[in-house]
């Protein structure tokens, strides 16, 4: 709307200026022709009434006084030249006669003589105005040329220009008013049109798969907006149905996966347990002097495998429901060292800022946290040329900070946001519950766990717990 108003104002202003110029040109052309016609009639009348012979030589006598009378009656100034272009008489006062050309240009004379035309019109600009001059023959009573009449005419466009300015000013005022009205109308119309769209946009921005979404209800929407609202409401219904189906499917899938994982993890220690029992049965000899030692080793092996199965069961149950917290006052440095003793790898190093850092934690669960983090670090460096795992314990303010760093494969960016998800694992074996359980334990004791990782460089897991304040 605004663009149309502006374009219309520019086009109408241009057409108006053009029309005024054309009207001015037509007016001056007609006025000049009228004055020429009236002037020729007056000259012919004078030639009829004169007592002098009508010849070129007598023109200055014939119009000696009559030229002023004619100029006064017709309200024009004109000049009379002989056939050679020499000035014979002009109607201007004697003190102004020095501005009159005393001889015509050769162009004018040649045109009148050779073209067969009886009139020559000269157009040019002088003193900032358009100037026209008519040159035409003066004939005697027998239609024989005896002189040349020159009628100069200056176009005075002052009135037209002033009128044009006034009209354009008024037109501008009208279009400025129309432009303001168009802006106001465009604003309110666009607001009215986009009101429904804004409502739809707000609803779509608040759409969330994790909660129930509201439908859109509009009063008297347009046909297109109504179709859009209906489509959105149908989408919300389908989305809720899909969410219910997806949740049911995920629960069923989770139970199936959990069952598979439990079965798989329990079968792993059963195989060596079976082989151990069979081997012991074949080699058992009551008379062997080392029988007591072998029975002891056999029992130890069985207990280890049973403990493994127990740990597996505990891992699954612990993830769903952590046991009650056993808040013990522990020396974190000592417990971490104890957790590392079960690992025989010589590339595992331990550093502590102090000999004793006290915190209230559950010993078993702290060991479980350290064990899981170190196992993950070991599994991340199978192909590293110079593997290194560094476990550090330090104090930062009123917190105990434990870090486990490795120079292994690192964690790809696409997996970082899933590291603590249950059942997520990138290894071919394992429950995928280790880091999820670690996070659960750490947070239950008011701690936090974070990590940084770069592919090909390694990973650093950092956990911190509140430090026990000395009394």
From TrEMBL:
Membrane-spanning residues: 167-189
Domain of life: Bacteria
UniProt-listed Pfam families: HATPase_c (PF02518), HisKA (PF00512)
UniProt keyword Manganese, yes or no: no
HAMP domain residues: 191-244
Record's keyword terms, sorted: ATP-binding, Kinase, Membrane, Nucleotide-binding, Phosphoprotein, Transferase, Transmembrane, Transmembrane helix, Two-component regulatory system
Stretches assigned to the Histidine kinase domain: 261-469
E.C. number: 2.7.13.3
Localization per record: Membrane
Catalytic activity from the UniProt record: ATP + protein L-histidine = ADP + protein N-phospho-L-histidine
Gene3D superfamilies attached to this UniProt entry: 1.10.287.130, 6.10.340.10, Histidine kinase-like ATPase, C-terminal domain
Enzyme class: transferase
InterPro entries assigned: HAMP_dom (IPR003660), HATPase_C_sf (IPR036890), HATPase_dom (IPR003594), His_kinase_dom (IPR005467), HisK_dim/P_dom (IPR003661), HisK_dim/P_sf (IPR036097), Sig_transdc_His_kin-like_C (IPR004358)
PANTHER family noted in UniProt: PEROXIDE STRESS-ACTIVATED HISTIDINE KINASE MAK3, SENSOR HISTIDINE KINASE
Descriptive protein name: histidine kinase
Organism (species): Flagellimonas abyssi
